[in-house]
């Protein structure tokens, strides 16, 4: 299916569950592979990105069984990976290629990582430079700025690194490399990014210390297999949260969603806009905070979003832009330059699509000013090959004047394979 027509909806009602968290699913495979013993993962997200990670570790000799309910990883310990006999294809997954490069830089063998046409355009120097400082030997196109990357691993030393960007991918790549370096490595960010790696490292027994926007990892220890229950992905839930907020008469309960404080910026922003969002039955699951999220249709208002909120909501900004487009007044987004180096330039892509749907806005280098309207106009727009843009425009259609045709939707399968089926279930008559 390459395109879909989505019509306006009267309301969203009922209870749903969204797929498992993509970030947690990636890390469960990676740490399970280098731990000693069995790791069992339930709630694993079987999107294309996570399956790319699974294939990569199978290629390096790690037995991984998937019966549809539980993913079982038979870890071989810190030095149990084998040299891959072929190039590792990471598909469209930035998490896979960046984190696995950090791990491969520490391994005593040669490897090559690459990805699809979109991933080969994404910046890799942000991990190559600090890994090189650790003693990594990595080369790639444009002086290591672009994949494919060729890696001659092994012989790393610890590092104290001040990252110029707040990026969980950069931080996590260095943390994986640090497990194999002598001594303690320290990574500092301008603002705290999501901390799934820190939490899971501890679950597996790694020696990790955190303080504000700093993390330290001691090398040389042994990880032990663990049981992991993956919560629902808040980035996936965000589309249904916004859909319920902007569709009159809606009341939607989303079960078992991860509400890690480093990821709940989207909830804070939508609440600042006047969104009626409640967290129910807050609890813990495998070291991650979890809750049920109750959302009711709300009259939204424009807000100013910047600073430390940005890294905590970076993946949800396409959905936030949809809420802003129907809010009363102007919503200004700043300090979000990182959006320009995601699966696509999300600032430019969302600006183009919003204008095509009748929304007035001004694009700036690190964000945009969105002037709220009553509804989206109908039309036909594309995804730019970006799963989050495809899903954002799909929920915009629910509050459009005549429906929206969303083109190039195959990319949705990277993170949310059942998105359109779930949308059809909750928004009667839209599909």
Overall mean pLDDT: 96
* CATH-assigned fold name of the largest domain: UDP-n-acetylglucosamine1-carboxyvinyl-transferase, Chain
Helix share of residues? 25-40%
- Poorly predicted residue ranges: none
- CATH homologous superfamily annotation of the largest domain: Enolpyruvate transferase domain
Structural class: alpha/beta
Biggest sheet, open or closed, and with what strands and sense?
A: 4 strands, mixed
Task: Give the amount of beta strand, in percent.
Answer: 25-35%
**In angstroms, what is the radius of gyration?**
21 Å
Give me the number of helical elements.
13
Distance between the termini: 14 Å
Integer count of domains: 2
Given the C-alpha coordinates, what overall shape results?
globular
Name the features.
431 residues; UDP-n-acetylglucosamine1-carboxyvinyl-transferase, Chain; single chain; four-stranded mixed β-sheet; 23 strands; alpha/beta; 2 domains
């Amino acid at each position: 299916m390459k395109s879909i027509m989505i019509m306006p909806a009267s309301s969203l009602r009922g209870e749903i569950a969204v797929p498992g968290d993509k970030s947690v699913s990636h890390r469960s495979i990676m740490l399970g592979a280098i731990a000693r013993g069995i790791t069992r993962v339930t709630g694993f997200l079987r999107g294309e990105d996570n399956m790319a990670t699974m294939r990569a570790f199978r290629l390096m000799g790690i037995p991984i069984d998937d019966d549809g309910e539980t993913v079982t990883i038979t870890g071989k310990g810190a030095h149990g990976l084998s040299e891959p006999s072929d190039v590792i294809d990471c598909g469209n997954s930035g998490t896979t290629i960046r984190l696995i490069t950090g791990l491969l830089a520490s391994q005593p063998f040669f490897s090559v990582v690459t990805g699809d046409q979109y991933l080969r355009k994404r910046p890799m120097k942000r991990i190559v430079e600090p890994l090189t400082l650790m003693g990594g030997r990595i080369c790639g196109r444009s002086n290591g700025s672009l994949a494919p990357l060729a890696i001659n691993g092994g012989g790393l030393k610890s590092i104290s690194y001040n990252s110029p960007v707040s990026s969980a991918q950069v931080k996590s790549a260095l943390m994986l490399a640090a497990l194999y370096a002598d001594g303690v490595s320290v990574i500092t960010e301008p603002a705290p990014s999501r901390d799934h790696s820190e939490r899971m490292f501890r679950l597996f027994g790694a020696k990790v210390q955190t303080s504000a926007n700093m993390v330290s990892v001691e090398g040389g220890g042994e990880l032990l297999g663990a049981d992991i229950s993956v919560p629902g992905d808040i980035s996936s839930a965000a589309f249904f949260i916004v859909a319920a907020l902007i569709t009159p008469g809606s009341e939607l309960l989303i079960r078992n969603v991860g509400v890690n404080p480093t990821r709940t910026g989207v909830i804070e922003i939508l609440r600042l806009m006047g969104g009626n969002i409640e967290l129910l039955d807050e609890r813990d699951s495998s070291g991650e905070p979890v809750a049920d999220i109750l959302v009711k249709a709300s009259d939204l208002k424009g807000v100013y979003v910047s600073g430390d909120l940005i890294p905590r909501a970076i993946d949800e900004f396409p959905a936030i832009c949809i809420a802003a487009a129907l809010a009363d007044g102007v919503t200004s987004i700043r300090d979000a330059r990182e959006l320009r180096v995601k699966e696509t330039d999300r600032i430019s892509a969302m600006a183009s699509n919003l204008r095509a749907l009748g929304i007035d806005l001004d694009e700036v280098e690190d964000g945009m000013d969105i002037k709220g309207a009553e509804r989206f106009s109908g039309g036909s727009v594309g995804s730019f090959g970006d799963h989050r843009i495809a899903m954002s425009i799909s929920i915009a259609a629910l509050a459009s004047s005549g429906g929206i045709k969303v083109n190039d939707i195959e990319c949705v399968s990277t993170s949310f394979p059942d998105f359109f089926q779930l949308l059809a279930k909750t928004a009667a008559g839209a599909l």
